[in-house]
């Protein structure tokens, strides 16, 4: 159905590099989600009334929360599509994440309320009757939710929307909870045990789980999560494919919302090269990154003395010493400043976050190791920093 509607309403629907097309996909799926969830809510309220089941009624309110979530997501897509302005020069793309956080809050409140209602039903059980109409509604609901999970996941992957992928996961959780409700109603044909309240409790727990997962999906990028490893590899491949680039470091990916990112990095180039030619190469790389990865790129040139054999020898020696401390450590921006009594070796040491070493302790250990070189005539002036990728 979504593909059919897209053919009718979405122009240039396959041009996903266009942010307007991306928003149109999200808007379309949002409207379909609102419509389907409202229909399911109304149908399950009817089924709950026919059977007297709090679990079915809880599932109906779950669909209502999903409809509200779709409305908030729609608003998020609209606000995220606003153009940059003087107060927000990088655009409003993070509104998608903010809307996702609001959705998580709505789902959480709904789950807490249903948890309370289900506990009340466990303490004060009421008879539940099997209704063929209610059972048919629940079966139909399962089929609709499976379809919603499919199209949300497919379109979410297509337009790179974590919010829609999270919605797909939520739809799968809804499917499981609805199946549980259906089984509890069928069980009334074979037992008088008050299962309804317990199944309602299970549905409420599923809703709370979905709220926590949705919050994780949105809080992490708002706080500044690390870029995906595949994306980092693409950047490294493209930049290092240029013969004049000897290495890269200090790579940072700034995420301003889906489809809006800025890449900054330092590219090591030969200090003996022609500055104008190197600058032209860097400009070309920035353009290539922008076109290939749909981002803005800023590259800083770092000249290194690649034709100085003594500097290169000491750089390799210091690199080996640092990796003896921990093989995950790397160095860059290496240079020498000679004096009458000793020589300073100035460099940065990069420490991945998973390396559990205190910075001051690490700086001391590196400095001590460097003093062992060539009779102790070298002093380390080292800056310890974390890796951003």
Can you characterise this structure?
- With about 400 residues, the chain is α/β, with parallel strands linked by helices.
- The chain has three domains: about 1-225, Cation efflux protein transmembrane domain (Alpha-lytic protease prodomain-like, Up-down Bundle), CATH 1.20.1510.10; about 230-305, 2-Layer Sandwich (Alpha-Beta Plaits); about 310-385, Cation efflux protein, cytoplasmic domain (Alpha-Beta Plaits).
- About 60% of the residues lie in helices and about 15% in strands.
- It has eleven helices and six strands.
- The strands form two sheets. A three-stranded mixed sheet has the order 1-2-3, covered by helices on one side. A three-stranded mixed sheet has the order 4-5-6, covered by helices on one side.
- β5, α11 and β6 (about 380-385) form a beta-alpha-beta unit.
- α3 (about 55-80) runs parallel beside α7, α6 (about 160-185) runs antiparallel to α7 and α8 (about 230-240) packs antiparallel against α9.
Features:
6 strands, alpha/beta, Alpha-Beta Plaits, three-stranded mixed beta sheet, Alpha-lytic protease prodomain-like, 14% strand, 389 residues, elongated
> Main β-sheet: number of strands, strand sense, barrel status?
3 strands, mixed
What count of domains describes the coordinates? 3
The N- and C-terminal alpha carbons lie at a distance of 40 Å
Number of helices: 11
Order of helices and strands: HHHHHHHHEEHEHEEHE
Counting DSSP E segments of at least 2 residues, the number of strands comes to: 6
CATH class of the largest domain: Mainly Alpha
Read across the widest sheet, the strand sequence of neighbours is: 1-2-3
Supply the CATH superfamily name of the largest domain: Cation efflux protein transmembrane domain
- Mean pLDDT comes to 82
What shape does the CA trace take?
A: elongated
Strand content: 5-15%
Helix content: 55-70%
Unreliable sequence segments: none
What oligomerization state is this entry in? Answer: single chain
- Level-2 CATH architecture of the largest domain: Up-down Bundle
Radius of gyration: 29 Å
